[in-house]
Design brief:
The chain has five helices and seven strands; from the N terminus they run αβααββββββαα. By secondary structure, the protein is of the alpha+beta class. It is elongated.
């Protein structure tokens, strides 16, 4: 067998193993979530598989341990609520009435034993209105102009952390 053929076989084996490992790693992130109603309806068929369930935390159902490592709450469905118990770190903005996605398994009683809670609060991340960005008197805030390469090198040379040797060896130095 020639060296080229051996290298081709080795490359094919390495490529196959890499593709298989990438598939295994990515397949867990391909899992979509169920709604609370779907989870309740399919509880007997879900068995012990890991699932993600999306829903809104029912009002006045959230109980968080003092160390913020455990929480219990109900996810609202249209017909019934799904009881959830989560162990592990919790998001800071976990509260009644917000949308969450809980990852975990159903126990024998039909409660979701969560290991991860993700909050879904898009309104928190909406940009502010342009008027809120105005400075005093309704004026836009002043911005410092960007410096050219020569000016920024000269400005950095004023810094106590910028040495003369850095100025000499700087690609911006002329």
């Amino acid at each position: 067998m020639t060296t080229g053929r051996k290298l081709a076989i080795a490359a094919a084996v390495i490529g196959g193993v890499t593709a298989y490992m990438a598939y295994l790693g990515a397949s867990s992130s391909w899992q979509y979530y169920l709604t609370a109603d779907e989870c309740l309806a399919e509880a007997d068929t879900l068995g012990d598989q890991r699932i993600r369930v999306s829903g809104k935390i029912a009002p006045n159902s959230l109980e968080i341990a003092e160390d913020r490592r455990r929480a219990s709450f109900s996810l609202e469905g249209t017909g019934a609520n799904l009881a959830v118990v989560c162990a592990g770190p919790l998001p800071d903005n976990l509260a009644d009435g917000i949308d969450v996605v809980v990852e975990g398994r159903l126990d024998d009683r039909g409660n979701l034993q969560g290991v991860k809670v993700l909050t879904r609060c898009a309104s928190k991340y909406e940009s502010e209105k342009p008027t809120a960005l105005r400075g005093k008197g309704g004026q836009a805030p002043s911005r410092r102009p960007l410096l050219s390469g020569w000016e920024s090198t000269a400005a950095r040379s004023q810094s106590p952390f910028f040495t003369q040797s850095a100025l000499i060896h700087s690609p911006l130095a002329v």
